[in-house]
Amino acid sequence: MPEPDERSRAIIDGLEAIDPRYVLHLPSSTLTHIINHMLARPNTTTFPIPREEEGVGILSGLELAGSRAVAIIQDNGVGNLLTALTTFPMAYHIPQFYIVSRRGGLNEYNSMIHTLCDRVPAILDAAGVRYFDLDGRTPIDRWATTVEKAYEYSRTTHRPVMLLTNLMEG
Amino acid sequence: MPEMTRTDALKAIDAAFPTDPIVVNVGAAIREMVAAVGYKPNHLHILDSMGLPPAIGLGLSMGLAESKFEKVVTIEGDGGLLMGFSALSTIGMLKPGKMVLVILDNGTYGSTGHQPTAAHTTDFAGTARACGMEGHDVETLDELKAALEESKSIDAPVLIRAKINLQGQKTPYFLEDPVVLADTFRRYLTGSAKE
């Protein structure tokens, strides 16, 4: 298996610092290295979820029970989870953390995915969902720390937080 | 017409699990539960989010696997279950031994005016078994009570489909701040509930 690229490696380092007990993930080609690392990680239960909104529910239950958990999804699934996110963890002040891979933009090969993905920040702004960006504007040596701090921000604000992470070339 | 009312079923669930965590699904079930047994700190009331309770119950059941609680109960309607049907597959895959999922099936979306659901052509208990859960159908209050008791000795996720009638109670809206609901429930789980 090829070694992770440096952006994926940095996200893995950030997740290691968080030390989650549970990791939920959607399928994703761009997130392969990260998901595979978490699947192989001892003492962490990493499992697939079939829909983003189901992940919102599971993550909320884990958080209420006091478990450290992280969800890994793609931004083209953000549209699926907005109702669940706004009516439950946002309304109830249940912290939770999402690593969200960005699609669309530079190096995108899919001819239709950009229609939603390019607008995800605007959609999240409109819904009042807090997010941080992690892309080429952030030096690679600060990526892992940003992952950890974004997770902590969800704790201190008692809200869902998303880290919009560009693992392509943007 | 089933003889069991929703309030009958809710009282039976609360009586079987008086101190274990119970996720109560949207709308009429919350109002009737509060009217029947009061606002209890071990009850998590899901004011909206139709279809989400089974997933929430799954997360709780995993997170509380090593806790003092005997079971983690989730109440859902037939319409709500169909909105989040994929959760059965995930529950069957992860097999949380403390999870009890009770489906109150009146064949309609009861909180929105009783529009019909596809429950009458869907074998919920059979689907649960096919997904790797235990699955039971109950038609009467005595059968429900027996199934709830039996679930306590099963170290596997259990789905109980309880057929209820359309009879509902006139109850006031339950308008508590959701932040308070979550905080009360979380404090109960962590044993730091205020006296």
Write a brief structural summary:
Chain A is α/β, with parallel strands linked by helices. Chain A has helices at residues 6-18, 32-40, 52-64, 78-87, 89-92, 114-117, 120-127, 143-157; strands at residues 22-25, 45-48, 69-74, 96-101, 130-134, 160-165.
Alpha-carbon Rg of chain A, integer: 15 Å
Tell me the major beta sheet of chain B. Answer: 6 strands, parallel
Q: Please mark out the parts of chain A with pLDDT under 50 across 5 or more consecutive residues, or reply none.
A: none
Oligomer: heterodimer
Low-confidence stretches of chain B: none
Strand order of the largest sheet of chain B: 2-1-3-4-8-7
Report the sheet with the most strands of chain A, covering strand number, pairing sense and barrel closure. Answer: 6 strands, parallel
Beta-strand proportion of chain B: 15-25%
Strand order of the largest sheet of chain A: 2-1-3-4-6-5
Shape of chain B: globular
Describe this structure in words.
The complex is a heterodimer of chains A (170) and B (195). In chain A, 45% of the residues lie in helices and 18% in strands. Chain A is an alpha/beta fold. In chain A, β1, α2 and β2 (45-48) form a beta-alpha-beta unit. With 195 residues, chain B is of the alpha/beta class. The radius of gyration of chain B is 15 Å and the shape is globular. The mean pLDDT of chain B is 95. At the A-B interface, α3 and α4 of A face α3, α5 and α8 of B.
